[in-house]
Write a sequence for this structure.
């Protein structure tokens, strides 16, 4: 079994095939940006992009991403700098404690890939399942709008 | 780390000890009392080495952005650029760090930090490169960082912002140790206010789960009156399978006196009854019937799921 993780092909260890993708990322690939929040697909802290779709990695078995392209927060920036969504997050000082922000950003990236110029209702709908205990929602919406303008 | 040891460790750079006479030390503590920042706890917050400054946060950063606020104060008082100061989170070697509670970080720590930075600025200007700078507190009116119109309203880059948006910060749950095991304490499906404990379980079935390590009967104190049963696995996903395989029998001593609460607060059932009385209750809700006026939907346990609760033991 293998999958593409942030542009590079990787094997899925057989003994980890039944584990949630969330645990595979740090334990086998050293990627700690995707967070455990609730473990049951409620809070969105573990959001990654699988074949272009934002999904909860805590309820995604590792084996189910065989052959898929998985993108995590670590795979957004490139040699030219931050992804426009990351830069917008910085420009508007979105993060507070930061724990949920990787999931928020990945949901925003998936939204903008699908809908380059979303309205506020579409932003709210796309990020409805990403909870932020610090309450940064207003800045998140503003940052998505800014990223859409910059893209 | 003792103060003398810290001084020795820091001797190759210019560090600051804040005098006990700093006015921030005399602030009335919020109950419960906790150590106020004093000369010992303030030691080494700010250091200068090879033209660069390191600010070691005297408080835990838990999302209140105290790192950014303290860095603002340091940069303003040192009269240096944002990138000239690195912020380091303290480790457990820093003695007597005050607990991060009470929304009082800036109130309690701003002036001691500004005093330290002012003294360090003067020492660097005098050409000193090593040793400890002892602070002789100056009037607040002479502190650049605390002048009216200085910092309030500015929007600096969040201290850890770049790290956060790239997924770099390590939270407790992200710490990985060689050979790490995963554990969970199982408790009876009952409120913790009533006594409960495990009486029987199938260890043989649990051992058959790949990744099983052990069942721990002595797994710490009860939560309330609920005694648990610990399970340990070599991979996190095995915990659910072990829990299922154990098929634990729980002894639950008695029903809670208000065991009917779930039915009483079943809003949908209440609303399905049609017209609501909207009575004004007089007295404790516990002494009379429930009155449902409206339903408000919020994300399920909005705070609960996102709260990172983790500990790593070595």
């Amino acid at each position: 079994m293998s999958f593409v993780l942030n542009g590079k092909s990787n094997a899925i260890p057989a003994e980890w095939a039944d584990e949630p993708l969330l645990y595979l990322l740090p334990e086998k690939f050293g990627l700690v940006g995707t967070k455990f929040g609730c473990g049951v697909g409620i809070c969105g802290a573990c959001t990654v992009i699988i074949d272009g779709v934002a999904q909860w990695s805590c309820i995604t078995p590792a084996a189910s991403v065989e052959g898929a392209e998985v993108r995590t927060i670590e795979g957004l920036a490139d040699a030219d700098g931050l992804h426009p969504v990351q830069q917008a997050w910085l420009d508007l000082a979105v993060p507070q404690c930061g724990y949920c922000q990787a999931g928020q950003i990945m949901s925003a990236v998936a939204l903008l890939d699908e809908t380059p110029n979303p309205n506020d209702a579409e932003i709210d709908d796309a990020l409805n399942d990403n909870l932020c205990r610090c309450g940064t929602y207003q800045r998140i919406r503003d940052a998505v709008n800014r990223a859409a303008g910059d893209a | 780390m003792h103060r003398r040891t810290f001084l020795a460790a820091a001797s190759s750079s210019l560090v600051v000890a804040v005098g006990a006479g700093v006015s921030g030390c005399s602030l009335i503590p919020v109950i419960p009392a906790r150590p106020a920042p004093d000369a010992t706890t303030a030691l080494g917050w700010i250091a200068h080495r090879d033209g660069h400054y390191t600010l070691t946060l005297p408080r835990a950063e838990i999302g209140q952005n105290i790192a950014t606020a303290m860095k603002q104060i340091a940069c303003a008082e040192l009269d240096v650029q944002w990138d000239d100061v690195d912020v380091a989170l303290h480790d457990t070697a820093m003695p007597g760090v005050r607990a991060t509670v009470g929304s009082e970080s800036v109130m309690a720590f701003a002036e001691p930090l500004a005093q330290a930075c002012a003294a360090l600025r003067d020492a660097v200007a005098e050409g000193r490169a090593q040793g400890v700078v002892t602070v002789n507190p100056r009037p607040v009116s002479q502190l650049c960082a605390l002048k009216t119109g200085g910092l309030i309203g500015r929007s600096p880059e969040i201290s850890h912002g770049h790290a956060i948006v790239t997924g770099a910060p390590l939270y407790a749950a992200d710490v990985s140790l060689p050979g790490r095991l995963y554990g969970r304490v199982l408790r009876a499906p009952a409120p913790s206010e009533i006594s409960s404990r495990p009486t029987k379980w199938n260890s043989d079935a649990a051992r058959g789960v790949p990744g099983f390590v052990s069942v721990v009967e002595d797994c710490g104190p009860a939560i309330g009156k609920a005694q648990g049963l610990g399970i340990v696995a070599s991979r996190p996903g095995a915990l659910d399978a072990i829990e299922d395989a154990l098929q634990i029998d729980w002894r639950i001593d008695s029903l809670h006196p208000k065991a009917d609460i779930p039915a009483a607060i079943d809003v949908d059932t209440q609303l399905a009854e049609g017209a609501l009385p909207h009575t004004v209750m007089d007295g404790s809700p516990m002494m009379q019937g429930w009155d449902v006026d409206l339903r408000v939907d919020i994300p399920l346990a909005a705070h609960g799921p996102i709260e990172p609760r983790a500990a790593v033991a070595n």
Remarks:
- Chain A touches chain B at residues 15-16, 18-20, 23, 26-27, 31-38, 40, 42-43, 45, 72-74, 76-77, 82, 86, 89-90, 93, 95-102, 105, 131-134 (CB under 8 Å).
